[in-house]
Design goal:
alpha/beta; Rossmann fold; globular
């Protein structure tokens, strides 16, 4: 499983990667915004994207929409990891078709559970995303 971690904060990218390593994952790419993330997606084999919402050049939500519109990329798993916690933002992310949503700051166990839900939910039922 190859992850692309997209966040404008190098510290947050490192924290997510360290957490994923603790879960046994070892393959990562990193990007600091949606533009760089999309370039990596178009030129690398990526299975799972984590993205922040608020980033320069292209927001995470804009990136999610582009991924879902692209025939080659539309089935990639996407986990939004953001400090945005309003109901309106969560609804917007659902409409953009994120597979799950984590609010910062997050507990390591929460991140693990959200990733497991995404990977184990073959039907990608968005109603399951907020029951943790």
């Amino acid at each position: 499983m190859r992850f692309l971690i997209i966040d404008h904060s190098p510290t947050m990218r490192r924290a997510i990667i360290n957490t994923l390593r603790a879960f046994g994952y070892e393959e990562f790419e990193e990007a600091e915004n949606g533009v760089d993330g999309m370039n990596i997606l178009q030129n690398s084999e990526i299975d799972f994207v984590t993205t922040e919402w608020d980033m320069p050049n292209m927001t995470g939500i804009e990136l999610v929409k582009l991924i879902r519109e692209d025939e080659k990329l539309k089935n990639i798993f996407i986990l939004m990891i953001t400090s945005r916690d309003s109901k309106a933002d969560i609804v917007e992310a659902l409409k953009a078709k994120v597979d799950n949503y984590v609010v910062k700051p997050f507990a390591t166990q929460t991140l693990k559970e959200k990733i497991e839900i995404v990977l184990n939910d073959k039907h990608r039922d968005p109603a399951k995303m907020f029951f943790l």
